[in-house]
Amino acid sequence: MTFPIKKDALTHLKKLDAHMNAIITHLDYPEEQQIEDGFLALCDIIIGQQISETAKAAIMKRFNDAFSPITKAAINRASLEDLRRVGLSKMKAMTMQRLSASDIDFTALKQYDTNTIQNTLLAFKGIGQWSVDMFFFVAMGHPDILSVKDIGILNGIMRLYDVSKETAYTFENYFSPYGSTAASYLWKLLEVDDATLENIKKDVKT
Fold first, then answer.
1. Using H for helix, E for strand and C for coil, what is the string for the chain?
2. pLDDT averaged over consecutive 10-residue blocks of the chain (206 residues)?
3. Which domains, from first to last, does the chain contain?
């Protein structure tokens, strides 16, 4: 299923400021895929840690080809060498092994409160705050996730608002309570070349 971007979110963000209004008006609707299976979502998130979307897609294809269907049992049976063979770093492969060896039902975990989910995931070496934020976004469709630990989000904010990285960090709660919708458009913005972006920003009235 796709991430649920609602009309209320778009209305709020368009009214929030002219920059967000401009990209929502000009960019295609972002199609973010929500992953229902908690363990599969974590594998997807781990693969995507600190690499580009292009690199992630290539590794994810090899990962699926090698281990599909992706389950805790399937990954638990795989050796470290098997996991590294599809392109995972040693650290990412070991993180997956730790998750697959645990007795936690990561899909059922989504039913718990956010603090419980966060503390449970952070207890695993190799899972940091960015990965937890992405779990809320990817696996749960949480409406208000905008991680300033995500380089894509930071780059999107810097390009759209013409601000420094230090200033971009201050946007963490700016789009609340619809941070996830803002994040989707900021990621989408990374696909836009500079000339197109400048043309879009002509609609911004200061």
1. CECCCCHHHHHHHHHHCHHHHHHHHHCCCCCCECCCCHHHHHHHHHHCCCCCHHHHHHHHHHHHHHHCCCCHHHHHHCCHHHHHHCCCCHHHHHHHHHHHHCCCCCCHHHHCCHHHHHHHHHCCCCCCHHHHHHHHHHCCCCCCCCCCCCHHHHHHHHHHHCCCHHHHHHHCCCCCCCHHHHHHHHHHHCCCCHHHHHHHHHHCCC
2. 82 95 92 91 96 92 96 96 97 98 97 97 97 96 93 94 96 96 94 92 76
3. 7-32+145-203 (1.10.1670.40), 38-138 (1.10.340.30)
